[in-house]
Amino acid sequence: MEEYDLIIIGAGVSGLAGGMYSARLGLKTLILGASSGSEMPVGGTITVTNFVENYPGFIRISGIELAEKMRKHAEIYDLATIKQEKANDIRKKGGKFLVKTDEKEYLGKSVLFATGTKWRDLEIPGGKEFKHRGVNYCALCDAALYKNKTVCVVGGSDVAVRDALILSEYAKKVYIIYRKEKVRAEQANLELAEKNERIEIIKNTNVLEVKGKDFVESVVLDKKYKGKKELKLDGVFVAIGHVALSELAEKLGVKLNLKDEIIIDRKTSKTNVEGIFGAGDVTDRPFKQVIIGVSEACVAAHSAYEYCSNK
Q1: Rg over CA atoms, the chain
Q2: What distance in Å separates the CA atoms of residue 301 and residue 137, rounded to the nearest whole number?
Q3: How far, in Å, CA of 285 to CA of 267, rounded?
Q4: pTM of the model
Q5: Which of 101, 147, 209, 245 could cross-link 115 (Cys pair, CB 3.0–4.6 Å)?
Q6: How far apart are CA 235 and CA 105, in angstroms?
Q7: What is the dihedral of CA 30, 33, 37, 39, to 10 degrees?
Q8: What is the predicted pLDDT for the residue at 118?
Q9: What is the pLDDT of residues 70-87, one digit of tens each?
């Protein structure tokens, strides 16, 4: 059985940064590409972001390119190993942690959870039935399928607005349908959407149902829009938030908040379980940003170094 000083579960930008930092500190480090419940590739959710414009040092860079640079940076250290294996189980074993994947079992002195999140499902009639048949969760992945068609984005976050901007490059019409009055996007992105002739924001409105035959044909609204509650569409893009992938951490007794996010110490990235650390979107920090997740992971790597040094 392969043994490591630190096993990082999750190979998004937080996991990759943590792996780079821990290897620099001399820890034999394993970075596992995903955890149960996640289907994201190495690089994580940032890989489905069109452009990143708020990461220091890069005025404008694609999410895929940023993730690739971080992967290459981690891989230059011989002590860092990245494997695209899904961690399905974890338990304590003799003062260490046994991590099981579909392929192997690994033993680690310490573990960093950088498992991130998954998209929250659209739990309304038709939401699951039409998944991948007009109901989508990744605008960057699927926007090209809707060239010259009409689509909507359900949600009012910055992600929803960015998705609408991506879709407007292909679709002839993009609706943003949000249940509240104030769209919660970064001001620069919101201004771009408001100036875009292809984008229209429908506020204070909920989507009640997705309808169609073989594929999505319309959505039902709880309020009339231009005299009708049914809006004809070719596609629905869901941007209503994420669910923290914290099941494995919880199994070890790690404390979670009411959103199932891992509670960490702000100074050390430690959890309540000795030898277990957390970083990135899976943690309880409310402001979710790439730079914050990367920072938390580097702090966690240093804390893991101190922990392993005293073992």
Answers
A1: 21
A2: 32
A3: 12
A4: 0.81
A5: 245
A6: 42
A7: -170
A8: 86
A9: 999 999 999 999 998 999
